[in-house]
Design a protein that fits this description.
Layout (H helix, E strand, L loop, with lengths): L4 E4 L9 H11 L5 E7 L3 H7 L5 E8 L8 H12 L4 E5 L2 H13 L5 E4 L1 E4 L2 E6 L4 E6 L5 E5 L16 E4 L29 E5 L6 H14 L2 E4 L1 H5 L20 E5 L5 H4 L7 E6 L12 E4 L2 H16 L1
Parallel strand pairs: 1-2, 1-4, 2-3, 3-10, 4-9, 5-9, 11-12, 11-13, 13-14, 14-15
Antiparallel strand pairs: 6-7, 7-8
Helix pairs in contact: 3-4, 5-8
The structure holds flavin-adenine dinucleotide.
Length: about 325
């Protein structure tokens, strides 16, 4: 019998997580057909999306009031019987799955392989270590394999126009309530989400102050881009830490990444070096960021960026 692969599709209650679409590409590099699992409560739009995943044969749906907020404990209980039926179970690497995957692995007494950036075979995977400076190859002999995919390493597979996956509702045993949902605090933003944006403009310590960091927003506004930052900019209080890109921040791979006044420390580059096109603006021609960029502008950002903004404005007219 062929390899049995299950893709666990996480969501935010309204739509599938962006990373899921990238994990589909990863799974399709191994097999053209696979099953999908979704859990939640009142998730009809998500089920509809999941059934349009290219390659999805069956979409297993587990619904329960306790699954409403995707708490790790009930989701683990709901997924565990399904996981038992598959050779390879694939998650997207995100904050939700980082909570669920280790629990599921423990239940099944296996070691998960996280942040996979390349699937070599059903038992062999590449993943970054040491802040992305070394890519290790991990092979496993475990009968069942649980992995998470680093979305930045794979392009997005668009959903099909029409549903192809057969929806199968799965009953689950009574879920035990180990944890209780209290509240979520979600920051509202007018700009694109940093993790999913096609264009990201990031600012570093070179901006000098929170007031001058506004230059980054002005450039981002012209390009409908998300705003990111280096840790130095976050630590200096120019922006809050949810903007941080890097080893201890967000790992992203937009089509265009513009680094403004960022030196290019390895910890920063761990979060953006998979970007399709990297543009660097820095007044130090020896800054390490110039070793990874596609376009480098050596100059004072306070001169270069306003010129870029006015040039873009003119082009728009
Ligand atoms: C465990 C650990 C984890 C870390 N995680 C992260 C992480 O996730 N993300 C992250 O970013 N960092 C991280 N860091 C910090 C990292 O090592 C660097 O300190 C940080 O990235 C530097 O930020 P920066 O490039 O903005 O600042 P700097 O290194 O100070 O660079 C500022 C740059 O701005 C340029 N500049 C100054 N003025 C101008 C001007 N007028 N015009 C043009 N250019 C100008 C300078 O030439 C310089 O290159 C981590 C460090 C550690 C130890």
């Amino acid at each position: 019998m062929g390899l049995k692969v299950l893709l666990v599709a996480t969501h935010n209650g309204q739509s599938l997580d962006e990373q899921v679409h990238h994990s589909v590409t990863a799974v399709r590099s191994l097999t053209s057909v696979f099953d999908v699992a979704v859990t939640g409560h009142h998730i009809d739009p998500i089920i509809a999306e999941a059934s349009r995943i290219d390659g999805a044969q069956k979409v297993f749906v587990v619904t329960d009031l306790l699954l409403d907020k995707q708490l790790a404990e009930p989701v683990t209980q709901a997924l565990s019987p399904l996981v038992a039926l598959y050779d390879l179970v694939v998650f997207s690497s995100n904050t939700t799955t980082k909570n669920i995957l280790p629990r599921l692995a423990a239940v099944h007494k296996i070691s998960p392989i996280t942040d996979v950036c390349e699937i070599l075979s059903k038992r062999s995977f590449k993943r970054p270590i040491y802040a992305g400076n070394i890519i290790e190859t991990v092979s496993t002999k475990q009968p069942k394999v649980l992995i998470s995919i680093r979305a930045a390493s794979y392009q997005r597979t668009p959903l099909l126009d029409q549903a192809s996956g057969k929806i199968v509702h799965k009953a689950c045993a009574a879920l035990r309530k180990y944890a209780e949902y209290k509240k979520s605090i979600i920051l509202k933003q007018d700009r694109p989400d940093l993790a999913a944006a096609k264009i990201v403009i990031s600012g570093g310590r070179g901006l000098g102050s929170a007031a001058d960091f506004k230059l980054v927003y002005r450039l981002a506004d012209q390009l409908n881009a998300a705003v990111g930052a280096s840790r130095a900019a976050v630590d200096a209080g120019f922006v809050s830490n949810d903007y941080q890109v890097g080893q201890t921040g967000k790992i992203i791979a937009p089509s265009v990444y513009v680094a403004v006044g960022i030196s290019g420390a390895i910890q920063h580059m761990a979060g953006m070096k998979d970007s399709r096109i990297i543009v660097a603006i820095n007044n130090d021609e020896d800054a390490p960021i110039f070793t990874v960029c596609d376009y480098g502008l050596v100059g004072d950002l306070f001169t270069v960026v306003p010129k870029m903004i006015s040039h873009i404005k003119k082009r728009k007219k």
